[in-house]
Amino acid sequence: MDNLLILGAGQYGMLVKEIAESLNCFDRIDFLDDNSEIAIGHINELAQFVTGHKKAAVAIGNAEIRLELLDMLEKAGYEITCLIHPKAYVAPTAVIGKGTIVEPMAVIHTGAAIGKGCLISAGAIINHNSTIKDGCHIDCGTVVGARAVVDNKTNTKYSEIITE
To answer: Where are the alpha helices (DSSP H) in the chain?
Structure first.
């Protein structure tokens, strides 16, 4: 088992922690956050915690910041982990990029490609052979149609439908 470090201890950080707990593969889960009493340190101190935390994830909504922090974590020596809730469906042929978070009841179908640092919210459907590029947030209930391409850092709206 490993220890997990989550950057961001806000509402999304709590959700990511619950997903990580549901996987039963971490001895300890800690936060870094600049504005939280539950954090063990500040985000700019992330290099100091690499010896105690092999894996890390980023739970921050802003795509630009999320991708930047993922790069910083990698450069500091962390293993960037994907966290996929056990109640999500991910097809065996789907490809999920580093640092992506997949919430419960999301569906990622055959041949779909999800980029680095994406957030796939509860109930989202990523249909077959579609591409979600880096840093996207696919919101709750969004349907990404077959063969559709979602550009970098796109934030969909609740229950949006995206086609080719």
So the answer is: 11-22, 63-76
